[in-house]
Write a structure and sequence with these properties.
single chain; 363 residues; alpha/beta; 15 helices; 10 strands; 12% strand; globular; disordered C terminus
Length: 363
């Protein structure tokens, strides 16, 4: 899969997530077979550029190419200037955020709120594409509401303006992260454009990943929340797509080493005081489906130093290792008959589905 001149390692991307996909997390996911990672969204308002948070978000030291930065805002001139500013500081791909459903973002007429103002969305895309010589991509949703889907129209506009690739979260702004994903809308977008399309939304197992590629005909998959506490999902999905075989869960020893490496990188990047506080959510995600996770979370949430947090993690994994060689999840797999089923699309998109998609669906 390619974005402009860049050939990606594979067709799996880490979704940009505010407060999650900082440089240490992106590097960890790339190490575990994510082919592409996009930064947390960076505000386009130039008044916010010199804050410590903004400086960390545009720090890409040691990251593998291509380096992608997501920018957010509602003013074409600001976004164009933000694109130039980030390219000057190492960004090789600029991604425009039209997918975030957070109230504070949408209340500023940015993120997925832009889908309700197509002329402004078009002006932003045109301004950013014109401003930089690197590929510009767009992350979006299916529309403002399920009743006012406009993803196909916005996608065609974006392609005509020079957007190099699209990522579609298969829910509307109004749905946020609730309800079924509209994979049929992603498929309609893919059939309507010639540029690469990433499908995004509820991709949480290797089997689910293969099914969604078949349902949508997408070129790639963008995984977000399922990678929280489980960054090895990229390795599992890549292996399954390539071979049809499931990888076993990580060994306790491997998970321990990965998590301790992540913590060390996290503390070094954020500084100890902030790093200890922000590491708590990652440790909660790592252990939410593991035996004894509640006790560990109590310990790390009151820890005030990195050394105390790390010691708690080491003791916890010593206890896990005494129970099993591999991580044993207490969570019901998504492909279990009693768990959430994939929505089966219907309608004209599927009546005109390509033979390749039909063949995959029948497999």
């Amino acid at each position: 899969m390619r974005i402009g001149p860049y050939a990606l390692q594979n067709n799996l991307a880490v979704a940009p997530m505010a407060g999650v996909t900082d440089r240490p997390f992106r590097r960890l996911c790339r190490r575990l077979d994510a082919g592409y990672a996009i930064s947390e969204m960076v505000a386009s308002d130039p008044r916010l550029r010199n804050t410590e948070k903004s400086r960390r978000r545009i720090d890409h030291a040691g990251e593998a190419a291509p380096i992608a930065v997501q920018i957010a805002g509602a003013f074409p001139d600001f976004l164009a200037d933000a694109a130039r500013y980030n390219v000057d500081r190492g960004a090789q791909i600029i991604d425009i955020n039209m997918g975030c459903p957070a109230k504070k973002v949408c209340n500023a007429a940015a993120g997925s709120a832009l889908l309700s103002n197509e002329p402004l969305a078009a002006a932003i895309v045109a301004a950013v594409v014109k401003a930089v010589a690197v590929p510009v991509t767009l992350k979006m949703r299916t529309g403002p509401t399920p009743q006012t889907r406009n993803a196909v129209r916005v996608a065609r506009m974006a392609e005509d303006a020079g957007i190099a690739a699209l990522a579609i979260h298969g829910r509307s702004r109004a749905c946020a992260f609730a309800g079924s994903v509209e994979y049929e809308t992603i498929a309609a977008v893919k059939q309507a454009v010639r540029i690469p399309v990433f499908a995004n939304g509820d991709i949480d197992t290797p089997q689910c990943a293969r099914t969604i590629l078949a349902l949508t005909g997408a070129d790639g998959l963008m995984i977000g929340r399922a990678a929280q506490g489980r960054p090895w999902i990229f390795r599992e999905v890549a292996h399954f797509l390539a071979t049809g075989e499931e990888l076993p869960p990580p060994t306790v020893a491997e998970a321990r080493a990965l998590i301790l490496d992540h913590l060390a990188d996290h503390y070094a990047f954020h500084g100890e005081a902030l790093g200890v506080r922000t590491a708590r959510k990652h440790l909660a995600w790592y252990t939410e489906a593991l035996a004894g996770g509640v006790e560990l979370r109590r310990e790390v949430n009151i820890a005030e130093t990195a050394a105390v947090q790390v010691a708690s993690v080491e003791r916890y994994f010593d206890r896990l290792a005494a129970l099993n060689d591999r991580l044993v999840s207490l969570r019901i797999p998504a492909n279990d008959p009693g768990a959430r089923p994939l929505r089966v699309p219907s309608g004209s998109v599927w009546e005109t589905a390509t033979p390749r998609v039909r063949e995959a669906l029948a497999a």
